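Ticket #4471: structure output looks truncated?

Reporter: J.K.
Steps to reproduce: submitted the chain below (242 residues) through the standard prediction queue, then opened the result file.
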Amino acid sequence: MQPSKTWLKLLSALGIFLIGCVSQPVSQPVPTPAWLYVQVPDSLLSLSDDFQACTPSGGGLALLSPLEPGTPQITLKWGEIQSSNSHAYEIGEEQLLFIVHPDNLIAQVRFEDIQKTYTGKLSSFNWQNLGGSNLPLTLTSYAPESEVTPLLLQILGISEADLPRELVLVPSPQAMRTFIANTPGGLGILPSRWVDDSVRVLPLEGLSEPQTFPVLALSTDEPQGHAYEWLSCLQNRLSELP
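Returned output as attached by the reporter:
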């Protein structure tokens, strides 16, 4: 027996009603990454891979230079701080080294001769005056505003006014490494994590002052959440580095 047209209409209406009662999937909003803004000086950009590796899942990391506007959540600094209204945490340390061109095979230099070099007290800027070969010496340093400069002055026990005019100023550790790698008679200074095979560390005799300085993290408020997680990870990674 064929169903009546009335019955078919009822079934059709019931089907529409049932479809309307089925829950439709609700689209979930994509979570917005929690961005962490960190101010980093050039001297610590050698740690960029560690910065990225420690970025928490679901978060983003923005590295700001000290010259960029804005208020970072965390400020990284290399070296001691005299006083600060911020929370300060030591998360590692870094060493400042004197470097030369790889072809400069001088075995070692007396520290007092390095002091004479950086105060312009050598009879001439030549590696012979430091016990090396007859090679013109090109002395380098960083700009006064670089945080590496006060560390160098502290090691040498001199003031900025003592530096000679015969000084090539470079803008960053990366530029310093490139300059010394291309200058056979160059004498430079470099944070240890920037050193690679393109330059050679110059051994010093009689250096009494420490060449190692702390890596500090400063923040206005006590780090919480992603900021705390990032700093803890970074501290663990830096403790494992040579």
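Triage note (M.O.): checked the attachment and the full token line is present. Confidence is low (pLDDT under 50) at residues 6-22.
Status: closed, working as intended.
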